[in-house]
Amino acid sequence: MHIAVIGTGYVGLVTGACFTEMGNDVVCVDVDENKLARLRRGEIPIYEPGLEPIVSSAIANGLLHFSDDVGAALTRAEYVFIAVGTPPGEDGGADLQYVLAAARSIGRHLQHYAVIVNKSTVPVGTAEQVREAIEQELIRRDMKIEFDVVSNPEFLKEGVAVEDFMRPDRVIVGTDSERARERMALLYAPYLMSSDRLLVMGVRDAEMTKYAANAMLATRISFMNEVANLCDRMGVDVDNVRRGIGSDRRIGYSFIYPGCGYGGSCFPKDVKALIHMSREHAFEPLMLEAVESRNQRQKQVLFEKMERFFGGELAGRQIGVWGLAFKPGTDDMREASSVVLIKALIEAGARVKAYDPVALESAAREFPSEWLADGRLSLLEYQYDVLKGADAMVLLTEWKRFRQPDFEAMKDLMRTPVVFDGRNQYDPHAMAEYGFCYFGIGRGNRSVA
Ligand SMILES: NC(=O)c1ccc[n+]([C@@H]2O[C@H](COP(=O)([O-])OP(=O)(O)OC[C@H]3O[C@@H](n4cnc5c(N)ncnc54)[C@H](O)[C@@H]3O)[C@@H](O)[C@H]2O)c1
Question: Is the pLDDT of residue 446 over 60?
């Protein structure tokens, strides 16, 4: 099949590459010339395990092409995916300018029937706006071409995106058109061979499903963070509570890890967008607002613990940070908790040395360049280097390589053996035995709760 994908970011590139795995011919379109040039050379602009070999092999086999020319990409396309960003606008609502620009470019170039598939996360009613934008362009061209607009929200997780795309829990297709339903079922059939996991529903239902899924996951995290903060004040270890409730099959273990707040390109913006949608419909979203404010407060929790530990004297302290990406398995820094904490530490007069296995380059773009130039912030390539002379170490991203570090070496390198564990990776008793002053999230340590 011939497929065009407009927007070659995390979602567009994974989608395009994974479609070539089944033999489809894919043109990935983007407006970012620099990104396209790198991709044509076989360089992957993002860190996503397993993606590089798929892209290289598809390029070598002539199945994957990169272009800035929507017209050329649409020449043979039977499916046109929209996978551009939908960042939050100033009012918290999703900014649809990129989606609608993509829709207009489709309208300017469409030559024959195609299924227009919206993969971007978009507010309820966007498919109708996309249809309208395409129709307006067709009218301008004095052309009558049939097309369907389908909602096909993406549920991949950065870090395991290829696996998620190749073996999805389900594929959601929102459409009222029988023709589009059949086409979408054909396209996804190879990914759903073991059982029928194609869920067909109304377009608006599909658009809402994506937001509800992310809001539910964010709710679980914020709920657990709230419980953890209470545990801190009551001498309770939240990790025991987590295991105690996770073993209940009605609850399960997923997304109940307390920590220093959720980040990434999806949860924060999608919860905000759902709040915005609620208000637009004169509905007060009590739970969603609480989920969002708990998360914003949670990003302050480590700073508050550190401030209390150092008696309000953070100026001149040196802090070593392990982990910058918003979660392991990605170099994505969007809304990462590390940005909030590092900014607060530096503004309080501390110096920060930080390490991340893959996100150093993307992290450098998140901070003022003068901080990097004058050494208030150093981004270092070796995990243990950030601990030399440190007054405290903070773990912010739970990369596997941080799970069993050389604790003796850490202690020797640090000026004072103090660990703030933002992801509850270490055992408080073992840390005490190693001689660390250890603070997790909700581990019942009342002195710095
Ligand atoms: N990243 C994720 O984990 C994830 C998961 C599920 C859904 N989503 C959703 O998918 C959408 C895309 O997210 P992303 O993380 O891939 O974004 P991204 O920012 O990584 O990529 C978007 C790309 O679209 C390009 N673009 C913008 N306007 C364009 C245009 N008019 N024509 C062609 N290209 C254009 C940009 O240059 C960029 O390369 C968002 O709505 C997001 O919420 C993301």
Answer: no
Q: Kindly state the average pLDDT of the residues 419-431.
A: 97
Strands 114-118 and 79-82, bridge-based pairing: parallel
Quickly list DSSP for 247-263: TSTTT-STT----S---
**68 three-state secondary structure:** coil
- What is the token pair recorded at 199? 């869920």
Which SS3 state, helix, strand or coil, does residue 241 take?
helix
Q: What is the pTM assigned to this prediction?
A: 0.95
Beta strands (DSSP E) in 61-131 are 64-67, 79-82, 114-118
**365-389 tens-digit pLDDT:** 999 999 999 999 999 999 999 999 9
Beta carbons within 10 angstroms of residue 21's beta carbon: 16
Largest CA distance in the chain: 77
Give phi and psi for 5, each to the nearest 5. -125, 120
CB atoms within 10 A of CB 40: 13
- Among 33, 51, 119, 154, the mutation site with the greatest number of ligand 1 atoms within 8 A of its Cβ is 154
Q: To test ligand 1's pocket by mutation, which of 11, 28, 104, 270 has the most ligand atoms within 8 angstroms of CB?
A: 11
If we measure between CA atoms, which residue out of 127, 145, 6 comes closest to residue 74? 6
Report CA dihedral (117, 121, 122, 126) to the nearest 10 degrees: 0
Residue 414: CB within 6 Å of ligand 1? no
Cβ of 86 less than 6 Å from ligand 1: yes
Residue of 13, 2, 253 lying closest to 119 (CA atoms): 13
Q: What pLDDT, in 10s, does the model give residues 12-22?
A: 999 999 999 99
Instruction: Give the span between the Cα atoms of 350 and 368, in whole angstroms.
Output: 15
Distance CA(63)–CA(58), nearest Å, equals 5
Instruction: Give Cα separations from 223 to 218, 256, 302, 440 (angstroms).
Output: 8, 8, 17, 17
Residue 300 has which token pair?
A: 């302050």
Cβ(154) – ligand 1 distance below 6 Å: yes
Q: By CB neighbour count within 10 A (0-12 exposed, 13-18 middle, 19+ buried), where does 134 fall?
A: buried
Amino acid found at 198: L
Backbone angles phi, psi at 421, to 5 degrees: -105, 100
